[in-house]
Amino acid sequence: MGAALPQGWAEEPGQRGGSWLPLFAMPGRPHVGPLPELTDAERTLATALEADVTALAVEIGERHAGRFHYDNLRKAEALLSERLKAAGYEVEREAFEARGRTVANLVVERRGTTNPDEIVIIGAHYDSAEETPGANDNGTGVAATLALARAFAARQPARTLRFVLFANEEMPWFQTDAMGSLVHARRCRRNDEQVAVMLSLETIGYYDDEPDSQSFASFPPLRLLYPDTGNFIAFIGNVESGPFVRRAVGAFRETTRFPAYGCAIPDVVEGVGWSDHWAFWQEGYPGVMVTDTAVFRYPYYHDPEDTPDKLDFTRIARVVAGLEHVVTHLVDDP
Questions:
Q1: What is the model's pLDDT at position 24?
Q2: Predicted local confidence at residue 294, as pLDDT
Q3: Contact 115, 6 (CB under 8 A)
């Protein structure tokens, strides 16, 4: 089931008629060569990102709705709610049941001024996999979502901008009725909300400048198109979300000197739907994952050693600064 684009957002050439052909061509050129000096704002952002990841992965640690770490999940929920309130938001607690335990998504938004019925959702899951503190997966995505929420707290976007921190993305909840993002996506559909696009910020903190540090195990043809050095950020969607992958990559490359690549490929390819954007696909909404590619690069994926010391917070800050431009484009582009 495809979602209609908001008024004024035409389909990209080659996508009309529901074409299923893979979409690889992206606007602009990826940054190559040395990275520029960090700005003062990016240094401050890196410090804030590290503090938020440390609070989740070190001060709280393993957190999920399982028998032994449910209390930690609730601690994470309380911490993140306070962070959002401190940024000036009124926080909605979207509670639901998971095997007899109550868990909750946290929802905040800035109402659009000229197109309030069109909603752009930025989200990340705050639970961790079992037996891991979840610094990169997905403390980095949560910290980035918090940073973007702070950046837009005093702005007046044209479209409604919604930030959601999801419970229960990890197994055994992944792609089940108790997956937090699926709970929210279904509510959006029940309420007949026009979700223009959802961006899932998923595992964005690990970068490696060594050759052959990037794997293409799930879809080998990508090796012909993308570098084998794992020092870039990736924007990934299914074919139906291809126009929004292009918009996101184009806005990022236009404003940010950091390597970024994108692709829109059939969702049957392993890994394409491995995050909360998948839930929005199920309800006919476009969804794009922003990621360092996780298991295809990160040696500590779903591992007890997924700790903050493995991560590059200066590069995360560059990515988040670029995502601020992407979000601005998505909510304000006419």
A1: 82
A2: 97
A3: yes
Task: Provide DSSP, 292-327.
Answer: S-GGGT-TTTTSTT--GGGS-HHHHHHHHHHHHHHH
Domains and CATH numbers, the chain: 40-332 (3.40.630.10)
Cα–Cα distance measured from residue 320 to residue 323, given in angstroms and rounded to the nearest whole number: 5
Find the Cα–Cα–Cα–Cα dihedral 122, 126, 129, 130, rounded to 10°. -170
Three-state SS for 242-266 is HHHHHHHHHHHHHHCCCCEEEEECC
74-128: pLDDT as tens digits: 999 999 999 999 999 999 999 999 999 999 999 999 999 999 999 999 999 999 9
Going by C-alpha positions, the residue among 303, 250, 317 that lies closest to residue 136 is 303
d(CA 249, CA 233): 10
What's this model's pTM, rounded to 2 decimal places? 0.93
Helix, strand, coil tally for the chain in percent (to 5): 35, 20, 45
Chain Cα centroid distance, residue 35: 23
pLDDT at 67: 86
pLDDT at 159: 98
Q: Which helix (H) or strand (E) holds 162?
A: strand 159-166
What per-residue confidence (pLDDT) applies to 225?
81
Distance CA 137, CA 201 (A): 10
Query: Can you list the residues of the chain whose pLDDT is less than 70?
Result: 1-22
Count of residues for the chain? 334
- Exposed/middle/buried for residue 132 (C-beta within 10 Å: 0-12, 13-18, 19+): buried
Contact 148, 327 (CB under 8 A): yes
